[in-house]
Amino acid sequence: MADKVHGLDINGDQWELQDLPLTQEFEAVKPDILSIPTELAKRPIQLCFNNITVLPADWTDQSASPDIPGYPFRASLTTSGVTSDYSPDVRFDITAATLGTLAPVAKCTNGVVYIYASAAPTQNIEISTIICTKAA
């Protein structure tokens, strides 16, 4: 005797498994179910940090040995869980983004994202979001 299972799919349509014992139905979808962890593992790991304020006092002069030529000022932003194999996407608010002094790139190291400026900002720099993606 075959068991029956009823349900709704993601579109709200009804479905019914029948005419096969449930073990046979499971065996039919087992490869798809087992591939889910593999597919999830392929997704990049991302860490997000929101609503960060960088104060004028947070900037240090790295003129003697700048990480990025033309941008001698650096601010260190604490970002728990980030390591040097992450790539940061820093999204400044519109006021900060239009200053013309912030570098278009940033760098990650253990627990820190570095942002850079060509001149030391004299006002707070607001960052709406930093998304750090782990390299594959």
Secondary-structure map:
Elements: E1 5-8, E2 14-17, H1 22-42, E3 46-54, E4 59-61, E5 73-78, E6 86-92, H2 94-97, E7 102-109, E8 112-117, E9 125-134
Antiparallel strand pairs: 1-2, 3-9, 4-5, 5-8, 6-9, 7-8
The strand count comes to 9
Describe the global form.
elongated
How many separate domains? 2
* Strand numbers in spatial order across the main sheet: 4-5-8-7
- The average pLDDT value, as a whole number, equals 83
Q: Order of helices and strands, N to C?
A: EEHEEEEHEEE
Oligomer: single chain
Report how far the terminal alpha carbons are from each other: 49 Å
Give a verbal description of the structure.
The chain is an alpha+beta fold and 136 residues long. It has 2 domains: 5-42, no CATH class; 46-134, no CATH class. Helix content is 18%, strand content 42%. The protein is built from 2 helices and 9 strands; from the N terminus they run E-E-H-E-E-E-E-H-E-E-E. A 4-stranded antiparallel beta sheet has the order 4-5-8-7, with no helix packed on it. A 3-stranded antiparallel beta sheet has the order 3-9-6. A two-stranded antiparallel sheet has the order 1-2. The model has no long low-confidence stretch (mean pLDDT 83).
Primary descriptors:
single chain; 2 domains; 3-stranded antiparallel sheet; 9 strands; 18% helix
Précis, in short:
The chain has 136 residues and is of the alpha+beta class. It contains two helices and nine strands.
